[in-house]
Amino acid sequence: MTQSNDVTVTEVQRKILFEGRELADVNPCSSVEDVVKMHAVTTPELATAVIEGPEIKEGARVYTVKKRLGTKG
Fold first, then answer.
1. What is the CA radius of gyration of the chain?
2. Which member of 21, 34, 40, 53 lies 3.0 to 4.6 Å from 63 by CB, making a disulfide possible if both were Cys?
3. Residues 12, 25: contact at Cβ < 8 Å?
4. Which residue ranges in the chain fall short of pLDDT 50?
């Protein structure tokens, strides 16, 4: 008797969220930090942002990017 063990491998997608919107994962081979730095060119507040996660949600690794809170003066 022969048994068949079918294994399905599903790639887990990576999502990077900032202020309720998803940032494009411009280079999935790069670290999340590097992708956020690439977006900082057009969104300057990302240059000092804090990255939290990942959390697994709906089959994706979700990273949340938040503005760093600082003090002035």
1. 17
2. 53
3. no
4. none
Which pLDDT does position 9 carry in this prediction?
74
Other Cβ atoms closer than 10 A to 12: 9
- Residue 68: strand, helix, or coil: coil
Instruction: Please give the DSSP secondary-structure letter assigned to residue 35.
Output: H
Count of domains for the chain: 1
- What are the backbone angles phi and psi of residue 9, rounded to the nearest 5°? -110, 125
DSSP 8-state class, residue 52 = E
Please name the helix (run of DSSP H) or strand (run of DSSP E) that holds residue 22, with its range, or none: strand 21-23
Does the residue 49 lie in any domain?
A: yes
Residue 25, domain extent: 13-66
Predicted pLDDT at 5: 78
- The token pair that represents 26 in the structure block: 């411009």
